[in-house]
Specification:
This protein is mainly β. The chain is built from one helix and 28 strands. Strands 3-2-1-28 form a four-stranded antiparallel sheet, with no helix packed on it. It has a four-stranded antiparallel sheet with strand order 4-5-6-7, with no helix packed on it. Strands 8-9-10-11 form a four-stranded antiparallel sheet, with no helix packed on it.
């Protein structure tokens, strides 16, 4: 009988929580904890669902490969590979042979090889300098085009990908700009691959870009607020501005937008965004055909919801509270997208990334 496992990285504890998700009720049963390393954060799963990869953002920076036991969901460490910096995001290509990473503090992206056994053992084969604050990196379903966000430069980089060598090369054009003070953070693809959506940390807006599938280039379609009018928040600060203010002793007492993760349901009808200052999850509907977004409503959730995940059936959404050290599980209404809270579960300190794996 197929099983669904949930993995949550706990940055402060330096470990990964495992859970079994009941597909009928949405309840979680603990599988225990697996050691990873302090500041373990982003994770990704191999295409064959046999391995979980986790990035450790404390020195020495590395990515850890865990084998997933298909019957119990238990994780067992199999390998470790050095990373060129503290990487805020990791993802994997369709062949399962290359790992992409993005460094927020290091202003770079990188590619690490994965061997035939599914293990990441070797150092990066390519490191690419970027604009300020590389925050995410994703490849499309064709396995030909890669996109990376630069929060501090308000841009999305466009690359071609060679699946034989694992190397990235600039597409033409090499990037697409967003208006200033948006801060592009995370990228997701629509299920039909016609659009990508980008959460913007500083504005809270979600940007839609149409995808030219032949060329792999993006075209801006529009942006949609993920918060209601009157939220009381002002735009966030660029990291370099916040750092300069702190150095000068300038105190910032304003409540600022701090958007985080976004996910879309497998049927492509609903999109969810987490915002950390007010600890909310917003629901946006996706128009059939055009993919245009409409803000619907928002829901209170765990304190500082850094990561959210949707199970492969699109039935449940799980949110991690970075400051509550808990998980909230919601049922998704298949007609309206409405979230209904089912239960809350304890997690480790600094709970952030959520990965959900469906195994036969």
């Amino acid at each position: 009988m197929a099983k669904t496992f949930v993995y949550v990285s706990n940055a402060e504890d330096g470990d990964i929580d495992g859970f079994l998700l009941d597909k009928e009720t949405g309840s979680l049963s603990s599988l225990g904890k697996t050691s990873a390393g302090k500041a373990v954060m982003p994770m990704t799963v191999s295409p064959d669902k046999k391995f979980l990869y986790a990035s450790v953002r404390s020195k020495p920076f590395n990515v850890v490969t865990y084998a997933i036991d298909p019957s119990s969901g238990a994780l067992s460490q199999k390998a470790s590979a050095p990373l060129p910096d503290s990487m805020a995001y990791i993802s994997i290509d369709a062949t399962g042979r290359f790992l992409f990473t993005a460094s927020y503090g290091g202003d770079k992206i990188a590619v690490n090889p994965i061997d035939e056994a599914g293990l990441a053992r070797a150092e990066a084969i390519q490191v690419v300098p970027t604009g300020h604050n590389a925050h995410s990196i994703r490849i499309d379903a064709s396995n030909k085009f890669v996109y990376a966000t630069n929060l501090g430069s308000d841009q999305i980089l466009q690359f071609r990908f060679d699946a034989k060598t694992g190397k990235l090369s600039e597409n033409k054009p090499a990037l697409i700009k967003e208006p200033e003070e948006n801060g592009p953070r995370h990228i997701i693809f629509s299920p039909d691959q016609k659009n990508i959506y980008v959460s913007n940390e500083l504005s809270g807006n979600v940007f839609q870009f149409s995808v030219n599938k032949a060329k792999g280039t993006l075209k801006a379609v529009g942006d949609t607020a993920s918060m209601p009018a009157g939220s009381g928040l002002v735009p966030g600060l660029y990291p370099q501005v916040a750092a300069a203010n702190a150095k000068s002793g300038i105190k910032d007492d304003k409540s600022r937008v701090w958007s985080a993760d976004l996910k879309i349901t497998p049927n492509g009808r609903f999109l969810y965004v987490s915002e950390r200052t007010r600890s909310k999850i917003s629901l946006l509907s996706v128009a059939p055909g055009t993919g245009r977004l409409t803000y619907v409503t928002e829901y209170p959730t765990e304190t500082q919801p850094r990561g959210i995940g949707i199970d492969p059936t699109g039935t449940f959404l799980i949110a991690s509270g970075e400051k509550s050290d808990r998980l909230a599980v919601y049922r998704i209404n298949q007609t309206t997208g409405e979230l209904t809270l089912l239960d809350r579960y304890p997690a480790g300190k600094g709970a952030n990334w959520v990965e959900i794996v469906d195994l036969p």
